[in-house]
Design brief:
Layout lengths: L10 H11 L5 E5 L5 E6 L3 H4 L13 H19 L4 E6 L36 E6 L4 H4 L8 H8 L4 E7 L1 H17 L8 E10 L5 H6 L10 H14 L3 E8 L2
Parallel strand pairs: 1-7, 2-3, 2-5, 3-4, 5-6, 6-7
Length: 252
């Protein structure tokens, strides 16, 4: 029996293989003035998206993350200009809380738990709702101490029929939220919501290639090539019923 090869597939080749075997259908969408659609921004906070801001933040400028922040800023401005509702989920943890298997991140008072500088203006907007969550899954994290789900309350208050989701990480927090939203929709928990959109350019994830894992002597199962895992997150959301977008604009 031939031995297994330890050769690492270059990420550009891996991405090509994924596109061949697991293609994504990216649609274009124009949001009408009367559409009941809400924008959900997932965890675009310093601890995940500001260079050098913490254990889970990029240590070097990362183009995919830079693009996500820019797209989120542009989309949010368009939504606010049309007085359409925005919900921003902010990963926030107590000092004693460990969210395995990840290192300490977004701890209260560190600044990691706050919106990135480009999006701080959202805190002053009347059409924006902020929800701090202490777990990966934003749907679960939206439950308050009284048992009320703040996300569901937001959806029903605005009588939303569609949700547009963006944020970080595509294959972790974004995917967990979207998959749960799809299940909630299928069980009639989301009121009038029928479609859940995910905007590809408005999403990103972190990069931990195998070479870096080996250099740091980390377990190999922690390998996380950015483009491949971003693609996989999008694929699994689409396979469960989310609609993927490659372009978004709003009627002015």
């Amino acid at each position: 029996m031939a031995g297994k090869s330890n050769k690492v597939i270059p990420e550009v080749v891996l991405e090509k293989l994924l596109n061949q075997q697991m293609p994504l259908l990216l649609q274009a969408k124009t949001i009408g003035k009367e559409e009941k659609i809400g924008l959900v921004i997932v965890d675009i906070v310093n601890g995940f998206a500001t260079t050098g801001a913490g254990n889970m933040a990029p240590q070097q400028p990362n183009q995919q993350i830079v693009q996500m922040v820019a797209e989120a800023n542009d989309l949010a401005k368009l939504f606010c200009s049309q007085h359409k509702p925005i919900l921003a989920l902010l990963d926030t943890h107590r000092p004693e809380q460990q969210e395995y298997p990840y290192p300490s991140h977004c701890v209260v008072g560190t600044g990691e738990e706050d919106l990135v500088p480009a999006l701080k203006w959202l805190e002053r907007e009347k059409s924006v709702t902020l929800i701090r969550k202490d777990c990966i899954n934003g749907f679960i994290g939206a439950y308050d101490h009284s048992g009320n789900n703040q996300l569901l309350t937001w959806v029903k208050h605005h009588q939303l029929q569609e949700l547009l989701v963006i944020g970080i990480c595509t294959d972790i927090c974004v995917m967990d939220l979207v998959l749960t939203l799809l299940s909630a929709r299928n069980h009639g928990m989301l009121g009038k919501v029928e479609k859940i959109w995910v905007y590809e350019k408005g999403c990103s994830t972190f990069d931990l290639p195998r070479a870096e894992v080996e250099e740091k002597k980390l377990p190999l199962h922690l390998c996380h090539p950015q483009q491949a895992t971003h693609h996989m997150g999008l694929y699994f959301m689409a396979s469960r019923g989310a609609q993927l977008l490659g372009a978004v604009k709003i009627e002015l």
